[in-house]
Amino acid sequence: MEPCDFVLFGTLGDLARRKLLPSLYQLEKAQLIAPETTIVGVARSESTDEKYVSLVRESLEKFMKEPIEDSVWESFARRLRYVNIDLMQSNQYSRLRDYVDQAQRETVNYCAVAPSLFGAICQGLSTAGLATERARVVLEKPIGKDLASSKVINDAVGAFFHEGQVYRIDHYLGKETVLNLLALRFANSIFTTNWDHNTIDHVQITVAEEVGIEGRWGYFDQSGQLRDMVQNHLLQILTLVAIEPPVALDSDSIRNEKLKVLKALRPITRDNVDEKTVRGQYTAGFLTGGAVPGYLEEEGGNTRSNTETFAALRVDIDNWRWADVPFYLRTGKRMTTKRSEVVIHFKSMPHNIFKESYRKLPANRLIIRLQPDEGVDIEVMNKVPGLGKGVHLQRTKLDLSFTDTFKNERIPDAYERLLLEAMRGNPALFIRRDEVEQAWTWVDSIQNSWAAQNEAPKPYAAGTWGPIASITLLARDGREWDE
Ligand SMILES: NC(=O)c1ccc[n+]([C@@H]2O[C@H](COP(=O)([O-])OP(=O)(O)OC[C@H]3O[C@@H](n4cnc5c(N)ncnc54)[C@H](OP(=O)(O)O)[C@@H]3O)[C@@H](O)[C@H]2O)c1
After folding, report:
1. Which secondary-structure segment (H or E) carries 112?
2. From CA 405, how far away is CA 148, in angstroms rounded?
3. Are residues 161 and 130 in contact, defined by beta-carbon separation less than 8 angstroms?
4. Were both Cys, which of 65, 223, 224, 444 would link to 307 (CB 3.0–4.6 Å)?
5. DSSP label at 431?
6. Which residues, given as ranges, of the chain have pLDDT below 70?
7. What are the residues whose beta carbons fall under 8 Å from the beta carbon of 70, sequence distance 6 or more?
């Protein structure tokens, strides 16, 4: 447990109240925060430590599913301090000096604010003499909306902190099930030896959201599903499925391998964007809770937007391991249900000796459920017991449910893991600048091709799995989505 001072910029914002403060509380409960660590909340409005402590308590009560334990709360509340700073005013950052003691401890500066403020925060810390080797900065997504804007942000931060001090968040990398991809692949010889074009037919990655844009129309409409979800979360999952074995678990070994995958992604350009991608936008429809409006009728929306709320892509990785193994990615809002999963489709048997029972043997599938109901299934063929004539087969599941198997273990929220690693000074689960830029380079080519086409996204009713065209995307290759 390394003591540090933890400064939370944007402490009264949605992310901080909903995710970060509850996660810090959980770390307190697990006794993973050093006794000397102070948590300093920073926001604009003038307030006091006492008022801040009661606001934090309110946030925990509102956003945590479990009741607050008195003893944990007491030690947590003792760490909380509040400082008001207008983040655009460099001269105000000296107020932090009363709380941050770099002679004794390192400082973690968590920027839970809009990316346009990252540079100002780093400048302010520097003006206050706090941008030293004893400090690191944690940056929330999105790092820009394309390669050029991400460079501007990275340069603004890089002017004060070197790359080893910059921790870029993709909260998917804190999810237990995403981390388990590394364990599955590199701790099990049955997978290690069956993980390439010889045995795998194709891979599907789905991140389906049931929610719409949750009151963030203004933000989302400038971005769209490709930039908001594919550039970061889906590509990060893809890299972990596809990387070569890293020599060790240290941060650069893993990140070097991820970068190689990103560099091997075949570009999608104006020439092939039609056959490789589908853009969709939801219209009014029905979900479990009842009728919901379409994207254009959402609060704060306008009727002209061409922004996609759904994207499906065929991605090819041009390297030895993945030759001719497509990765199909899809992600959308207002889909049938909330579901994130990776499905590895193995190749079919070359010859079928069970024709009487099964005219075409289904191929094995490995299903990695990221959320909800985290776990891993393997579908295998089995003989149905009995004395009947012939051998009757049935597809059955070897089912590893995390909640059943690890009954006594709590599955931590992704942010708990990431906050802890940031405090420990371990950057392995954070994104390096070259990864961000490589991902943007690939995504920009798609975005620019779409812009040049200037076509409206394909409509799909809320509560469905997306536009018909996404079915065609796979049907063209003789395949279909797992549903
Ligand atoms: N919310 C999420 O679930 C989520 C998920 C992933 C990533 N993110 C990212 O996380 C970041 C924060 O998101 P959010 O939803 O928490 O935003 P938010 O609710 O708008 O909160 C932003 C915070 O920044 C503060 N702030 C803005 N300008 C400031 C200034 N000049 N000086 C001092 N404080 C200032 C605001 O303080 P005031 O109250 O004084 O205005 C507010 O507390 C964004 O980059 C977002 O993209 C959010």
Report:
1. none
2. 46
3. no
4. 224
5. B
6. none
7. none
Cα 279 to Cα 15, 200, 263, 274, 303, distances in angstroms: 28, 27, 24, 10, 17
Collapsing DSSP to helix, strand or coil, 164 comes out as: helix
CA distances (Å), origin 364, targets 190, 194, 238, 321: 13, 12, 20, 19
Give the tens place of pLDDT for each residue, 217-254: 888 999 999 999 999 999 999 999 999 999 998 889 99
Mutate to test the pocket of ligand 1, among 7, 86, 91, 113 (most ligand atoms within 8 A of CB): 113
Give the largest Cα separation in the chain, rounded: 86
Which residue among 14, 42, 52, 173 has the greatest number of ligand 1 atoms within 8 angstroms of its CB, and so is best to mutate? Answer: 14
Closest CA to 27 of 51, 50, 53, 4: 4
Cα–Cα distance, 220 to 217 (Å, whole number): 5
Ligand 1 contact via 456 beta carbon (within 6 Å): no
In whole angstroms, how far apart are CA 370 and each of 177, 205, 209, 354?
5, 10, 13, 34
140 Cβ closer than 6 Å to some ligand 1 atom: yes
CB of 291 closer than 6 angstroms to any ligand 1 atom: no
Residue-wise DSSP of 230-296: IIIIIHHHHHHHHPPPPSSSSHHHHHHHHHHHHHHBPP--TTTHHHHEEEEEEESEEETTEEE--GG
Q: Which pLDDT tens digit goes with each residue over 342-362?
A: 999 999 998 999 888 788 888
Q: Is 233 a catalytic residue?
A: yes
Please tell me the predicted confidence (pLDDT) of residue 400. 79
Predicted pLDDT of residue 88? 96
User: Residue 182: which of 257, 74, 269 has the closest Cα?
Assistant: 257
CA distance 368 to 180: 9
Entry field: residues in the chain: 483
Out of 171, 202, 233, 345, the active site residue is 233
265, 272 Cβ separation under 8 angstroms: no
- Kind and range of the H or E element at 73? helix 70-79
Report helix angle 235-242 to 176-186, nearest 10: 20
